[in-house]
Amino acid sequence: MNIRQNISLKSYNTFGVEANARFFVEINSLDQLDMALRLKGYPEKFILSGGSNMLLTRDLEALVLYINIKGKTIVSENGDTVVLKVMAGENWHQLVLWTLERGYGGLENMSLIPGNTGTAPIQNIGAYGVELKDVFEGCQAMDIHNRSLRYFNREECKFGYRDSYFKNEGKGKYIIVSVTLRLSKANHNLNTSYGAIEAELSQQGVDEPTITDISKAVISIRQSKLPDPDKLGNSGSFFKNPIVDFKTFDRLVKKHPNIPHYQISQNSYKIPAGWLIEQCGLKGKRIGDAGVHEKQALVLVNHGGASGKEVLDLAYKVMAHVKETFDIAIRPEVNIIK
C-alpha cells in the first residue's frame, strides 16, 4: 500500500470544494482494506467512495481510505432474472449502462445518479419512482473493528426514504464492499408514471418504451434540470423531500391549492423540497460562489471557489427560510463532514 500525505480532495468530491487529507491510501482489494484497517499508527480512519453525497467543510486529519474495488460478477440467472454481485468501487451510472447493454431491467429509472455502487445502500438511492431496495438482494460489508465480513439482506438494511441501517445504528461500523442486485431479463416492470417520464417519451415519439428508452428519457430530464458536477460542483439533491402528515398537508393545501405532492400512505404526503425553496424566492440565489441552482432549487452548487462551510451556511439559510415560510423543516440529504 502506498500511503500518501497532504492530498487535495478537490477532485474526490463532486462539490469540488477544497479540502486536504493528511493521509490518503487507495484501496483496490479486500486484502488491502483489511491491511489498512489494521494499521496502528492512524487511529482515525475516514472512508471515501465516489464523493457524490458528501460536503467537506474542513480538512481531514484522518487516514482517508479511498474505496476503489472493482468488479462485476453474475451470481446466478434463469430465463427471467439475473443476480449480479457488484463491487463497491464501480461507478453507479456506468453500471446502469452496462446492465442495459445486456438487456437487464430494474436500474433504468436510476440512470445518471452520481456516485459509486458501494454507497448506494447507505442512501437507498432512488429516482423517478424506483429505489435501490426494489432490486436489492443484499450487500457484503467489512466490520471496521474486527475486519470480519458480514452479509446483510434487504430486511437487515432497514431501508427507508433515503435512509438505511448504515446511516443509523450501523453508521461508522461497516464498510460496504459489494452489492448484490436481482434484475429482470424478461417481462420488465416498466415504471413511467413518476415525474416527466411519460411526457419525455412522448416528445421522443416513443409509444412502447423499452428499458433503454426509459433510461434515455431519465437522462434527458436530469440533464435538462441538474448540473453536471464536472462543470458545476454539486452533489445532486442537497435536501430530502419532506414527508408530512395529513393535518400538515391539509393546512398547506388550504394556503397553497396548487402545491405539488405525492401521497405515499393514508396519512403521509411527500412535498417537493425544490418547490418549497423556489416559492421562497431562493431559486438562483447566490452568496459568493455558493448558490442555489437556477434550474432546480433542490440543488446547491459551487460556482468555483466556494468552501464547504460557505455551502453549508447557504444550506442553513435555505432551511430557515422554508421553515419560516411554510412551517416545514427540510433536512440535508448529503453527508456533511463538520
Structural notes for this entry:
This protein has helices at 30-38, 92-101, 120-123, 154-157, 197-203, 211-225, 246-255, 273-279, 308-326, and strands at 4-8, 20-27, 45-48, 54-56, 60-67, 72-77, 81-87, 126-127, 130-131, 136-143, 149-153, 174-184, 233-237, 243-245, 262-265, 268-270, 286-287, 290-292, 299-302, 335-337. With 338 residues, it is an alpha+beta fold. The strands form 6 sheets. Strands 6-7-12-10-11 form a 5-stranded antiparallel sheet. The protein is globular, with a radius of gyration of 20 Å. The two termini are 28 Å apart.
Strand content: 25-35%
Count all strands and give the number: 20
Helix proportion range: 25-40%
How would a textbook summarize the main sheet? 5 strands, antiparallel
Outline:
globular
Low-confidence stretches: none
Oligomer class: single chain
Average the pLDDT over all residues and give the rounded result: 96
Distance between the termini: 28 Å
Q: Mind telling me the C-alpha Rg?
A: 20 Å
Biggest β-sheet: strands ordered side by side in the sheet: 6-7-12-10-11
The H/E string reads EEHEEEEEHHEEEEHEHHEEHEEHEEEHE
H/I helix tally: 9
Short note summarizing the structure:
This protein has 9 helices and 20 strands. It has helices at 30-38, 92-101, 120-123, 154-157, 197-203, 211-225, 246-255, 273-279, 308-326, and strands at residues 4-8, 20-27, 45-48, 54-56, 60-67, 72-77, 81-87, 126-127, 130-131, 136-143, 149-153, 174-184, 233-237, 243-245, 262-265, 268-270, 286-287, 290-292, 299-302, 335-337.
